[in-house]
Amino acid sequence: MQRFAYIGVPIDSVGRRGGAEHGPTALRDLGLPRALGGDDRGDLDLRIRGEERDSATGILASADVLDATATIRAAVARELGAGRRPFLAGGCCAELPGALAGARDALGAVGLVHLDGHLDLYDGKTSPTGEAADMPVSVALGLGPTAWVEVAGGASVAPERTALVGFRDKAESLEYGMRQPESIDPVPLQFSVEDLRAGGPAATAAKVVSTLGEQAPFWLHLDVDVLDEAVFPATDYLMPGGLGWDELGEVLSPLLASPRLIGASLGCYNPEKDPGRACGRALVEALGS
Q1: How many other CB atoms are there within 10 angstroms of residue 66's CB atom?
Q2: Which strands form 162-165's sheet, in the order they lie side by side?
Q3: DSSP tag of 231
Q4: By the 8 A CB rule, do 243 and 202 touch?
Q5: What is the reported pTM?
Q6: Cα(first)–Cα(last) distance of the chain, in Å?
Q7: What CA–CA distances, in Å, run from 240 to 37, 112, 168, 169, 232?
Q8: C-alpha distances in angstroms, 23 versus 90, 136, 217, 231?
């Protein structure tokens, strides 16, 4: 199987210096490129700065977010066009729309497995923070914010080729008025953390691979907050009730082993909250194994 090419994406949509933007360097120092077995392609020259919400898009540091998307889109298309399989190490989940747009540019129709504690279907109006990391699935599906969708070249994935896996923010998202997956036509595949446990993590992930893989090659996005806050405290979005390491391994195994997997992205590891790097080391081990 083709090995991953490691690409650092040092962005954090809070718009301030520090935090998750240091994730790519920390993971490189912990040996993630070597664990993935492929080339280290270095970091993209990106940062997100600004703490004002744009009046048109509703996004913090909107211009930097849009510029980052264009850069990531071009980089992923270039890697796939050269026959390499990219692994984007964020940074935050704002990397995802550019990654999917680049994959679509290079390969045509693609799918998405979104393994995340959150559904990420906010937009510039419903997001309580304005952080771009609230919105990547909305952008990928072409639902907004409009300017961000335009920079991504329109929708990158279709709902029927999208699987939302491991989320546990349903009540919170309803409270804030976020668009719900059930309102999208057709409705994406959905497996909450409770669904994963009821069906078995490995069996559920295998079902996702089978369903999406029949339609198109797919991209995997992993947000570390799919893990329980006690298991992985080194992120800015802590929630109880998430996966343990063994459960995550069971989910990742069929996804990473699939020949239909074209690339992957990792988001929201904050090494500033991991002074001994225990979380980072465990993450490298989980992905490498």
Answers
A1: 22
A2: 40-43, 4-9, 85-90, 261-267, 218-223, 111-115, 162-165, 189-191
A3: T
A4: no
A5: 0.97
A6: 14
A7: 33, 25, 9, 10, 10
A8: 6, 19, 27, 18
Q: What is the rounded distance in angstroms from the CA atom of residue 23 to the CA atom of residue 223? A: 12
| Structure tokens that stand for 211 in this block | 């369903």
Express the helix, strand and coil content of the chain in percent, nearest 5 each.
45, 15, 40
**Reduced to 3 states, what is the DSSP secondary structure of residue 264?**
strand
Q: Cβ–Cβ contacts within 10 Å for residue 29, how many?
A: 12
Contact 163, 251 (CB under 8 A): no
Q: 53 with 119: CB under 8 angstroms?
A: no
Cα–Cα distance for residue pair 206/93, rounded to 1 Å: 24
Q: Are 100 and 157 in contact (CB under 8 A)?
A: yes
> Tens digit of pLDDT per residue, the chain (289 long)?
478 999 999 999 999 999 999 999 999 999 999 999 989 999 999 999 999 999 999 999 999 999 999 999 999 999 999 999 999 999 999 999 999 999 999 999 999 999 999 999 999 999 999 999 999 999 999 999 999 999 999 999 999 999 999 999 999 999 999 999 999 999 999 999 999 999 999 999 999 999 998 999 999 999 999 999 999 999 998 999 999 999 999 999 999 999 999 999 999 999 999 999 999 999 999 999 8
Q: How far apart, in whole angstroms, are the C-alpha atoms of residue 258 and residue 206? A: 9
What per-residue string of b and e applies to 250-284 under the rule 16 or more CB within 10 Å gives b?
Answer: bbbebbbebebbbbbbbbbbbbeebeebebbebbb
